[in-house]
Amino acid sequence: MNIRDKQFAVIGLGRFGLSVCQELTDEGAQVLAVDVDEEKVKAAMNFSTQAIVANCTIEETVYELKLKDYDMVMIAIGEDINASILATLVAKESGAKSVWVKANDKYQVKILQKLGADHVIMPERDMGIRVARKMLDRRVLEFTELGSGLAMTEVVAGSSMMGMSIGQIELCQEEGVQVLGFKRGPNMTKAPSMETVLEIGDMLIVAGPQPVLTKQLKTLS
Ligand code: ATP
């Protein structure tokens, strides 16, 4: 299914909910933004397909939102745990297929899971893990065999690669190895210039003869 055909609902438009809305909208998805606070809804109008004022702890109101027609519902009500719990319960009861909920601590995670939330996130913890992973030196993410003796891998640049150009990385100098892509933040560049200077967290997508990659990856990991 094309991303443009995907329908998302985001309930709770604090900093977190609003950035979820914005990113989904930027990616071309259909996004319904909901908050009990009219000002928050106004602020979300530019970052969503439709923005509605509604109190999502009220059963009838949630049923009117027809959440069952959405591919995913994100409940991003942080502070008010009672509202978050109730909104999750009602969203599930109204037939929403996939309900993601933001939690503040591990106790909320447990409760929300028991209530049937399909996915519970703790943004601070999850981001902490992601940042720590990025801080780890030269972390290798994936290694995929392509057949005919070739393989593909993703390599995240650690501090030892910082300031080096792609062409200076030993792996990229090996015969038959090609750098297919380069990713910095959300931006992917195909066949990047070998002069590109690396920063920590940059990702290289590299293909080449499997024995060569295996040998090089051992020195990287
Ligand atoms: P942030 O995301 O900014 O870090 P937070 O997660 O603590 O903060 P809150 O400010 O607690 O978020 O709440 C997020 C939003 O949820 C607020 O804009 C609030 O108005 C909205 N909200 C709270 N209760 C309800 C409800 N019953 N129905 C709909 N929206 C609600």
TrEMBL record:
Q: Which residues form the RCK N-terminal domain?
A: 5-121
Q: Which PROSITE patterns match?
A: RCK_C, RCK_N
GO terms in the biological process aspect are: potassium ion transport
Top-level taxon of origin: Bacteria
InterPro entries named among the record's database cross-references:
NAD(P)-bd_dom_sf, RCK_C, RCK_C_sf, RCK_N, Trk_Ktr_HKT_K-transport
Q: Name one GO molecular function term.
A: monoatomic cation transmembrane transporter activity
Q: Where is the RCK C-terminal domain?
A: 138-221
Q: Which Pfam families match?
A: TrkA_C (PF02080), TrkA_N (PF02254)
Range of residues in the leader sequence:
none
Q: Which SUPFAM superfamilies match?
A: NAD(P)-binding Rossmann-fold domains, TrkA C-terminal domain-like
PANTHER family, alphabetized: KTR SYSTEM POTASSIUM UPTAKE PROTEIN C, POTASSIUM CHANNEL PROTEIN 2-RELATED-RELATED
This protein is called what?
A: TrkA family potassium uptake protein
